[in-house]
Amino acid sequence: MKKRKLMAMALSCLMVLAAAGCGNGGGGNAASGSAAGDSGSSAAAPSQSSSAAQAETPTAEGAEITLWTYPIGKWGDADTVNGLVANFNAVHPEIKVTVEYLDYSNGDDQINTAIEGNQAPDIVLEGPERLVANWGAKGLMVDLADLWTAEAKSAIYASVESACKSNDGVYYEYPLCMTAHTMAINKDIFEAAGAMQYIDEANGTWTTDDFIKAVQAVYDSGQANVGAVYCNGQGGDQGTRALVNNLYGGTFTNPEHTEYTANSEENIKALQLLYDMDGINYDASIVGGDEINMFCNGTLAMAFCWNVAQEKNNQDKISFDVLPMAFPSNGDPKLCGGIWGFGIFNNGDEAKIAAAKTFIDFMANDEKQAVESVRASSYWPVKDLGNIYEGDELMTEYSKFVPYMGDYYQVVGGWAEARTAWWNMLQQVGSGVDVKTAVEEFVATSNAAAQ
Amino acid sequence: MAAEKKNPMSKALVRRETMAGYAFMLPSLVFFLGFVIYPMVQCVFTSFFDATMNREDIFIGLANYKELFQDTVFLGALRNTAVIVIVSVPVVCIFSLWVSSVIYDIKGAACSAFRCIFYLPVVTGSVAVTVVWKWMFNNYYGIFNYVGTSTGLLKQNINWLGDERYALGCIILILLTTSVGQPIVLYVSALNNVDQSLVEAAEVDGATKFQCFWKIKWPQIMPTTLYILVITTINSFQCFALIQLLTSGGPNHSTDTIMYYIYYNAFKLYRYGYGNAMGVVLAIIIAILSAIQFKMAERD
Asked: Cys staple from B247: which of A243, B20, B99, B255, with CB 3.0 to 4.6 Å?
């Protein structure tokens, strides 16, 4: 009997411990993680730079490289990417490229696990928040300084360039495409409510005062749910950040991206305004994706989580006129941007690094291929390639927002923690906690993580 | 000579059979050691380290445990988990016993139909169940708000999952619906196995239905009750999928549970050591509670 009891208790423990133990990848694999880190340390980076100049040398010949890509437009679609790789192999048949497709729900886990097991891909296609602020900062990436030639620097927009390098000036990303995240309104509802008078339709902009008046007009017309400050999770959080920062000109970090500054008076005022407005709810039961669905089905009159891809992907669900808008601001709007490009993991194989640089150079710099590569992303080039979407009305309409792209602060340290703390802070504000208290707590948590 | 008669197998045969027995056990044993014991030991070991991705672990002794009990979010998660256990375990046990005692002696298809109905949420994927509940609780067009406002019970829509006053209650309600299926099936079996001759004899002696249940059936289904108590307690402590899919621990940490907080630390923040320390604490709590449950059952 005693044995049976002991057995039952032991099994109870095992069930829990096994579940918790599944997450452990640290202890046992520490050595391999360390090895990867050592080989990719920043101390090793200069030697990579010098060897990188040999990108076109025979060292790349016969190399087999792996490209892992997040779903950036059609870069997540095998048929499209196979076509792009075929273009590359037509010029560089000596380099074999194997592609794996990641998604945003577990892509980071896959890459981190691969790093732990010394199986990191050679090339990864993503944005500065991962390539520069995460893996680059950990010394796992190759310095791409040799790809950033004087010609490249003069061609690529300055704001993009600054996002692609670390604070100490090491380039960990070579950019391909970019977009500016906007918001959108249901034009039919706004027209019916007489709220279009508050909107500069041609430029897609509005002032903060006009935003307040427009929301009130829509609310008074009987639309109880005008907009939602969604905060169930981090999905689509760039929308709520941009909204809060733009209303009164607040910033999320300092210009050096070393400190979170969301506790400024401007941001507190903006958060309080949103809390007090009729028709705007802090909604802790939805994330950005839910908000988009509710906007598309007419439940909400505006979406804070929007960009051209949303309009393209949801065309069959939308039965009204969508008007993309910049976030309300008293000056030039500062939109949150997405910049995507290539980074190279330092796997210690010079031939593969050289081959990877050849691949990146072809995809991003070849005159004809660069256009095709960017078009595959469904976004815009990071340098002037002419109007690559000529005849495409939708892309032309959204292209007016690209110049509004603001500071790319996502490279700040402690980004993962800050993103979580942000929606937790919004939940606190929504549940009635004093705005200043909640924001101060957010900044303290985020700055602690940034250290 | 007498012993040889009692056990006619030769020692060699016994040894061969024993060896064969161990050989048959070996695959399971290897699996058990590799996928249960090893992670368990690793979990305890790593809880003493500052362990994360892409760098060497740092030994920090009991610092994770010290931090744990100063972490207000963890303490809140512990409280929420306790509420879930305290509410759901008795409700699940009492409700499933009540339903079972009503349906166990129904003959034929009706009993099977009831069992199917109550067991359906168990075999339905938790994601599918959650999606339906999420729709029903929707702030804007959920059926609860629709019915509530249509009938005048609610003055305005309630954000069931987005309001900290209601969110945990909603989670518990969903948990109850997905938890009662298995206990009902077990209780129906246990009640069918009760010795009917004792019940009939008691009825002849003038015992009431309640007395029959309390004095005859209840003691005989006690092992099943104990099993259900332990399993429901463990399941309630490990409530995770609902939280992950519905609220992400919000609003304002009001639905954080220990399991979700373990997941959050381990897989969102990559704080494996800290997450494992929570796992160890949770295991200890469950072990203590299970021991208490066994002790109480033994006394009964």
From this structure: B255
CB spacing of A34 vs B163 below 8 angstroms: no
Chain A within 8 Å of B292 (Cβ-Cβ)? no
For residue B295, what is the nearest residue in chain A, using CA coordinates?
A5
Q: Does B43 contact A112 at a Cβ distance shorter than 8 Å?
A: no
Q: Assess whether B96 and B168 both reside in one domain.
A: yes
Interface contact flag, A16 B140, Cβ < 8 Å: no
Please state, in angstroms and as integers, the Cα–Cα distance from residue A87 to each residue in A78, A366, B276, following that order.
14, 11, 48
Domain A40-179+338-400 is found in CATH 3.40.50.300: no
| Minimum distance, in Å, between the CA of residue A323 and any CA atom of chain B | 23
Shortest CA distance to B52 belongs to which of A108, A24, A445? A24
Identify which of B264, B275, B290 has the shortest CB distance to residue A20: B275
Higher pLDDT pick, A103 / A1: A103
Identify the pLDDT of residue B300: 60
Task: Write out pLDDT tens, residues A276-332.
Answer: 999 999 999 999 999 999 999 999 999 999 989 889 889 999 999 999 999 999 989
Percentage of the residues of chain A whose pLDDT score is greater than 70: 86
Residues in chain B closer than 8 A to A19 (CB atoms): 238, 259, 262, 279
Please, what is the average pLDDT of chain A?
86
The b/e string for A330-362 (b: 16+ C-beta within 10 A; e otherwise) is eeebbbbbbbbbbbbbbbeebbbbbbbbbbbbb
pLDDT band per the 50, 70, 90 thresholds, residue A35: very low
Is B49 at the interface with chain A, CB within 8 A?
Answer: yes
Query: Which residue among B39, B54, B280 places its CB closest to the CB of A22?
Result: B39
Asked whether the beta carbons of B229 and B293 are under 8 A apart, the reply is: yes
More confident call, A1 vs A191: A191
- Please tell me whether residues B118 and B190 are part of one structural domain: yes
Residue A30 has pLDDT above 90, yes or no: no
Q: Judged by CB atoms within 8 Å, which residues 6-35 of B form the interface with A?
A: 35
Instruction: List the domain range (segments joined by +) for residue B16.
Output: 1-35
3-state secondary structure of B297: helix
- Probe site for chain B from A6, A9, A16, A296 (most B CB atoms < 10 A): A16
Residue A27 near residue B49 (C-beta atoms within 8 A): yes
Answer whether residue B192 is part of any domain: yes
Chain B residues touching A140 at Cβ < 8 A = 54
What are the structure tokens assigned to A436, written together? 């200043």
List the CATH number of the domain containing B159. 1.10.3720.10
Q: Is B276 left (phi over 0), alpha (psi -120 to 50) or beta?
A: alpha
What CATH homologous superfamily does A182-334+414-450 map to? Periplasmic binding protein-like II (3.40.190.10)
Query: What is the per-residue pLDDT for A92?
Result: 94
Question: How many CB atoms sit inside 10 A of residue A162's CB?
Answer: 15
Taking the C-alpha atoms of residue A103 and residue A126, their distance in angstroms, rounded to an integer, is 11
How many CB atoms within 10 Å of residue A259?
15
pTM summary value? 0.77
In angstroms, the separation between the Cα of residue B37 and the nearest Cα of chain A is 8
Interface contacts (A, B; CB < 8 Å): 186
Dump pLDDT digits (tens) for B54-63.
778 899 999 9
DSSP A200: B
Tell me how close the Cα of B41 comes to any Cα of chain A, in angstroms. 8
Least CB–CB distance from B251: residue in A31, A299, A431: A431
- In Å, the largest CA–CA distance within chain A is 81
The predicted-structure confidence for B194-253, as pLDDT tens digits, reads as follows 988 998 999 898 889 889 988 999 999 999 999 999 899 988 988 898 999 899 898 989
